[in-house]
Amino acid sequence: MLSLFLLAPLCSQGQATSSENITPLARLQQEFVDLRFGMFIHYNIPTYMDQDWADPEASPSIFNPKKLDCEQWAKAAKSANMTYGCLTTKHHSGFAIWDTKTTDYNVMNSPLKRDVVKEYANAFRKNGLKVMLYYSILDTHHKLRPNHITPEHIKMIKAQITELLSNYGKIDALIIDGWDAPWSRISYDDVPFEEIYTLIKSIQPNCLVMDLNAAKYPAEALYYTDIKSYEQGAGQHISKDTNQLPALSCLPLQKSWFWKTSFPQTPVKDALTMVNENIIPFNNAYCNFILNVAPNRDGLIDENAIAALKQIGKAWKNTGPTQALPIGTAPIISPNLAKFQPANSSWSDDMNIMDFANDDNFNTTWQSNATVKNPWLEIGLKAEKAFNMIVIADKKNVTIKKYQLQYRLHGVWTTLFSGENNSRIKIHRFPRVYADAVRIQLEDTGTTAEIAEFVVFNERTI
User: Which of 385, 336, 388, 379 is nearest to 357 (CA)?
Assistant: First the structure.
């Protein structure tokens, strides 16, 4: 029997969290979309290097704002009718702008010697704005990069996230970057997503987790994120016509994310364009829009950016909650048990054989030979494993409609699902079973079957 259900925020065992204080995830997602518009604040050591990606060995001595004023940032956000902020606590080069005990590479060893995260959080709350934080998994200063990750790195990540979620009051969302992206190449196995996700929920159950992974994962399901997030500058664009998921779209007001010496003399993006081509249409498509405004080396927002935010505030008013989100299924957060495991199938297209169905790449596919009327695909698990979830992704068009899902235990195949599903991403949750292989058997639909990814999970339950 197929079981589909909504997921409440997870709490780890041993964490003293009252269920009365836990808001269902669906409501948190709705509340986030209802916020409509916020301020991204890229401010970190790259600000002082004229680069978006800083030298990982840059000295903390260059982080030296003379007029840092987070109150100015908050008032600028208010002038644009924004409802929240999100600050880059640590970017890809690993410099922490809070009073962390995990590394000496932090703001307390700079000339500033002040906790920027604390000042930001206090200023935004004082002005009635919600507080969100950005955190990079990729950390080139600490060599937390592909093929170098150690257990100590995992401990550091957990300790840093624990600090950020324990010392600065209510954090409405943690936006994570540099994780399972084509450019970062740090997988959810290298740094275990499920462990980090459940840690976050154990400390702050109502904190949304957003991973900026839209470059890899399909738009029709929440893979490893509570909110589907799109970076427009990287070519990630939400469909304003078909999106059904709680979403976030981000764009810088200036020419790039971090401040550059040219910014005071360079025109910022047009205020009315931000309103009419971003805020309004995105809000109508279940999408929150976050506009990045980069403080300068003094720790202040430039006058041209301040003026643009005021123009936005005059042209756009926040009218409150948006339309109700469609009912959706829980985010996928667990490790992929089928990834790179032995695959077999009926006759395949020569250039699209069975291995492409579980290669962790949604741009490749297993494609059945067009002459096969009832094709099948099988994934071996090498040994008996527990699992309670299977997800099948068509590449683009829906080619798989009627099918059976089966699992093998002690040589016997048992059917988990038999029926029709016309979704591009087919999510199946069911009571936990044990098996050494899984397979899909397809009924003839008159089109050539094509699977981008066949994925198996042993998902944690509450």
Answer: 379
**pTM of the entire structure?**
0.94
In the sheet with 208-211, reading across from the earlier edge strand, the strands are 208-211, 173-177, 130-136, 84-90, 37-41, 287-292, 247-252, 228-231
How big is the CA angle at 163 (ends 158 and 169), to the nearest 5 degrees? 130
φ and ψ at 57, to 5 degrees?
-105, 10
- Please tell me whether residue 405 adopts helix, strand or coil conformation: strand
| Residues 37, 291: Cα–Cα separation, whole Å | 8
* Residues 357-377 as b or e (16 or more Cβ within 10 Å = b): bbbbebeebbbbeeebeebbb
Instruction: Tell me the pLDDT tens digit for each residue of 427-442.
Output: 999 999 999 999 999 9
Scanning 100-249, the segments in alpha helix (DSSP H) are 116-126, 151-166, 193-203
Q: Answer yes or no: are the C-beta atoms of 368 and 349 closer than 8 Å.
A: yes
First to last CA, the chain: 20
For residue range 278-315, list pLDDT tens digits in order.
999 999 999 999 999 999 999 999 999 999 999 999 99
The CA distance from 343 to 364, in Å, is 15
Alpha carbons 319 and 321: distance in angstroms, whole number: 7
Residues 6+ apart with CB under 8 A from 108: 99, 114, 115
Q: Is the Cβ–Cβ distance between 11 and 20 less than 8 Å?
A: no
**pLDDT mean over 70-85:** 98
Q: What is the DSSP string of 245-303?
A: S-EEEEEESSSSSS--TTGGGSPPPPHHHHIIIIIHHHHTTTEEEEEE----TTSS--H
Is 288:282 a contact under the CB 8 Å cutoff? Answer: yes
The Cα 113–Cα 111 span in angstroms is: 6
What are the DSSP calls for 81-113, one per residue?
T--EEEEEEE-TT--B-S--SS-S-BGGGSSS-
Q: How far apart are CA 421 and CA 428, in angstroms?
A: 10
**DSSP assignment of 325-342:** PPP-PPPB-S--TTTT--
Question: For residue 70, what are its two tokens?
Answer: 């987070």
Q: Give the separation between CA 437 and CA 23, rounded to whole angstroms.
A: 37
Interhelix angle 70-79/116-126, nearest 10 degrees: 40
Q: What is the mean pLDDT of residues 153-176?
A: 98
